[in-house]
Amino acid sequence: MRHRRKGRVLGRNPSHRKALFRNMVSALFLTERDASGEANAPKVPGRIVTTLPKAKEIRPIVEKCVTIAKKAVLAEQSASQFATSAAKGSAEWKKWRESDQWQKWAAARAPVVAARRRIVQMIGDKQAMRILFETIAPRFVDRPGGYTRILRLATTRLGDAGERAVLEFVGKNDRQRKAAVRPAFESEAEST
Question: Any idea what the CATH number is for the domain that residue 48 is in?
Answer without folding.
Answer: 3.90.1030.10
